[in-house]
Amino acid sequence: MTVPGHTTNMEEKQQSVSGTPNEANLLKLMERTGYPMVQENGQRKYGPPPDWNKQTPPRGCEIFVGKIPRDCYEDELVPVFERVGKLYELRLMMDFSGSNRGYAFVMYTNRADAQKAVRELNNFEIRKGRLLGVCTSVDNCRLFVGGIPKTKNREEILQEMKKVTEGVVDVIVYPSAVDKSKNRGFAFVEYESHRAAAMARRKLIPGRIQLWSHQIAVDWAEPEQDVDPDTMSKVKILYVRNLMLSTTEETIQKFMNSQLGKENAVERVKKIKDYAFVHFKDRDDALQAMDLTNNSTLDGARVEVVLAKPVDKNDYRNYTRGKSALQQDEIEDTLEAQLKHLSFEAFTGYSLYGDQTMLNQIFPQSGREFQGRTAVGIRGALRGRGRGAAGSRGAGNQRTTFVPGLMGRGLRRYPQEILDDFCQKNGLGSPMYQLHSTVNGEAQLFLYKVTIPAYPNQFQPNKLCRTVDDAKCYAAEFVMSQLGIPMDGPPEMPTGPVVASAPVPPNPYQGRPIGPAYASIPSGVSARPDLTFASTMPVVTSAPPSYVMAPGEPLYINDNLH
């Protein structure tokens, strides 16, 4: 006797994979496990379990799987990943040809299984000579919003963001290190879901919406990297932020000891600009001091106190490689939107307004860019367009194989890309762009300062631009002119130091005429080994906000850098 419900279920399963490669094997998989499979918005979803009646597994249960062979499907992937633990869902990114796009997201029913999968299945040989790349996935719900007037407080920013976007949960604003009554010119906006954040990011594209008559810059915020609970259980260092610039290390040490009622509870203090790391002899004292001092007032400033978060030493070394002692020891007071404030994990050293994602460069795929929800630890992976194939893509997106540097503009390359190629080929480190703005009458003008890790001086363009994109493009052109790099591509690295043929004024805000952003390279500028840097070039004084401990100890970064 045929069971009607069973027949209907079988028909639905057949329809969900009808016409797909490996259709027979996919049907066998669904028959064996009972999991449903459906294709929507450029992805094929396998799961959830048929007997699942709980909430969706929490954050931290999902992993990212890359380097998947294009003709490899769920019938091969599921048996591999279900060895570790029970699967809640597998989302395989697909293109219109029926092939996969080289990556997938696998969600387990608990975090322990997800962590185990990362440990055991990274570099798993799915086929002969084909190794999978497996790492933790993060569902990003937070946006960075720059260009906010510094006079606005948290409540004003929160209300304004709720007016122009939906799903706003919270706004994080940090006071200026110089003037605590003002903000730093940017904020982090938390949304109720990744989809809400992706839709807000699309709506806030520069030039489409202004806040308080100011053009804003919007990008994904860097996610916090999870630290193993066992590691965090041993931390006895506190991170203290929002300090006054005048507050000394001795003042902080006395403050902590007095709160605990002990004389020598604190081993040492390392203060950098407006934040500090406080080392305690005993973890219990550190926890008690955190509870007693968080949101308290020190030298007239309300401070935030949290446990410091260990970071990977290799990541820190990669960030600091090539930097001079001057760069590592000083911070320029006037640059308030430094890299440490633009990301959760400041040691990463990413450019906030990055170009194409590294994932697209590693795994060429259909579609415009990687979609925001990605893997922790992959450099630049949060520079995409939202959550991967989760319904946030517009219908007009290009559906061709992605080639970095050539998308949508033929063979013409942006100056940023030419400069980055030059720096990478010559081991100079990736250029880092810092956005600044000012108001001239009715118009808001923008300027990017550029830092190249291998050079001791920061490059400061001599002209302001009307848009953020033009400012970044001109900044790259300006640096190229200083280094003698032709616009059609970088030459070999000169054997000696290079510099502009004319000194660069230290202040770009001194009544300079506004011209087109895409200015031509000044004539007569070339890479000459007999020249040195101009003495008037501004000095880079930004430093990575991680505190390096003595040899053998872990590195720490704040637990609340948004």
TrEMBL record:
InterPro entries reported for this sequence: HnRNP_R/Q_splicing_fac, Nucleotide-bd_a/b_plait_sf, RBD_domain_sf, RRM_dom
Location relative to the cell: Cytoplasm
Keywords recorded for this protein, A-Z: Cytoplasm, Repeat, RNA-binding
A molecular function GO annotation: RNA binding
CDD domains with a match to the protein in the record: RRM1_hnRNPR_like, RRM2_hnRNPR_like
Chief location category: cytoplasm
Start and end residues of each stretch annotated as Disordered: 1-23
Entries under PROSITE patterns matching the protein: RRM
RRM domain residues: 61-139, 141-223, 236-310
Assigned GO CC terms: cytoplasm
Keyword Cell wall biogenesis/degradation: no
Protein name as annotated: Probable RNA-binding protein 46 isoform X3
